[in-house]
Design a protein that fits this description.
The chain is an all-alpha fold. It has helices spanning 2-15, 18-41, 43-55, 59-97, 100-124, 126-139, 142-172, 174-182, 194-211, 221-246, 253-257, 260-271, 283-300. It has one domain (2-56, 142-299). The chain contains 13 helices and no strands. The longest helix has 39 residues, at 59-97. It starts with a helix and ends with a helix.
C-alpha cells in the first residue's frame, strides 16, 4: 500500500500542471461534442432502447427506486448549472487576470468545488430529497415515469460512451503522454498487444453494463457495480499499456497477481473521477501515469 500511495501522490504532483489539464480538458470537450452530436442524431433509437430495458423492470421497483436515479440526475445537473453560473460571472474576470492556461485550472477548481458543495447538500438532506422524489414518482402514471427515466438512461448511455472513449484515447496516447510529462525515453514493447486487450475488455464492459442496467435501480448496489465495472476496465488497460512501455518481455500472469491489490486500488481511485462531470476527463490520464509510476518502482526493486 505504501507504494500505491507514493504512486498516487507522485501523479497528483505531475497531473496538476497546465499542460496535462489543458490536454485532458481539450480532448474531453471534443469527445463530449462528438458523442453529444451522435446522441442527438440517434436520440429516438436511444430512448426506444432505454424503454425496452425498462419494460424488464417491475413498475413497483421503478416507482420506488427510480427516485434514486432521478436524485443522481438532479445532483449531476446542479453541478453543471452551478459551474456555468459561477463561470458566467467570473469567467471574464479570470480570463482578464490570468493566462488562458491558468483559466483551465480555475475552471477545474470551480467544477470540483461545485461537486463538493452539492454532495454535502445531498448527504445532509438525503432523506428529505428521497422522500419528495418518491412522492413525485407515486403521482406519475407509468407512461410519464417510463419516458422520464428513459430520458435519463439515454443521457447515461451517452456519458458511458464518453467515459469509454476517454479511456481508449488515453490508452492509445499513453506512450506520448508519459514521454511528454516525465521526459522519459519510451520504447514500446510490440510483443504486448495493448490495443487487443483494451478492445476486448471494452466489449466485455459494454455487454456487462447492459446486463446490469436493472441493478442501477437498487440503492448502494448501483454505485458499487458501476465503480466496479469502471475499475475493472481501467485496471487491465492501464496495466498492459504501461507494461508495454516498461517491460522488455511479456510478464507472466502469476507475477501480475502479486500486485493485483495495488492495481485494483489505483483503478478504483481513478474510477471515482467518473462520478464528477469534467473531472472525469482527467481520470484515465491520471490512472495511466499512476500505474506507470508504480510499475517503474517495482521493476527497480525487481519485483516485476
Amino acid at each position: 500500500m505504501k507504494h500505491v500511495l507514493h504512486a498516487l501522490l507522485f501523479t497528483f504532483k505531475e497531473i496538476l500542471t497546465v499542460k496535462v489539464i489543458r490536454l485532458s480538458l481539450s480532448i474531453g470537450f471534443v469527445v463530449t461534442l462528438v458523442w453529444g452530436f451522435v446522441g442527438y442524431l440517434y436520440w429516438s433509437k436511444l430512448i426506444a432502447f432505454s424503454s425496452y430495458i425498462l419494460e424488464l423492470i417491475p413498475f413497483s421497483m421503478l416507482e420506488s427506486n427510480g427516485a434514486l436515479v432521478l436524485s443522481i440526475f438532479f445532483w449531476f445537473i446542479l453541478i453543471l448549472v452551478t459551474f456555468a453560473i459561477i463561470f458566467a460571472f467570473l469567467g471574464n474576470f479570470i480570463a482578464g487576470k490570468t493566462s488562458k492556461n491558468m483559466a483551465n485550472i480555475y475552471a477545474l477548481l470551480i467544477i470540483a468545488a461545485s461537486a463538493v458543495f452539492w454532495t454535502i447538500i445531498w448527504i445532509n438532506k438525503s432523506t428529505y430529497i428521497h422522500t419528495e422524489l418518491v412522492k413525485l414518482m407515486s403521482w406519475l402514471p407509468f407512461k410519464t415515469l417510463d419516458e422520464g427515466i428513459s430520458f435519463i438512461l439515454g443521457i447515461y448511455v451517452v456519458y458511458m460512451a464518453i467515459v469509454m472513449s476517454m479511456i481508449l484515447i488515453a490508452s492509445l496516447m499513453n506512450g506520448y503522454f508519459i514521454k511528454s510529462v516525465l521526459n522519459d525515453k519510451i520504447v514500446k514493447n510490440r510483443e504486448i498487444k495493448t490495443i487487443q486487450y483494451t478492445l476486448r475488455d471494452m466489449v466485455i464492459f459494454l455487454v456487462a453494463s447492459i446486463l446490469v442496467v436493472p441493478l442501477l435501480f437498487v440503492p448502494l448496489l448501483n454505485v458499487i457495480i458501476q465503480i466496479g465495472l469502471w475499475s475493472w476496465l481501467m485496471k487491465d488497460t492501464f496495466v498492459y499499456d504501461n507494461l508495454s512501455l516498461l517491460s522488455e518481455t511479456v510478464v507472466s500472469k502469476e507475477q501480475l497477481k502479486q500486485h493485483r491489490g495495488a492495481f485494483w486500488s489505483i483503478s478504483i481511485f481513478c474510477a471515482l473521477f467518473n462520478l464528477i462531470p469534467i473531472i472525469n476527463f482527467i481520470g484515465p490520464f491520471f490512472g495511466e501515469l499512476a500505474v506507470y509510476r508504480y510499475i517503474e518502482e517495482q521493476k527497480q526493486q525487481q519485483k516485476i
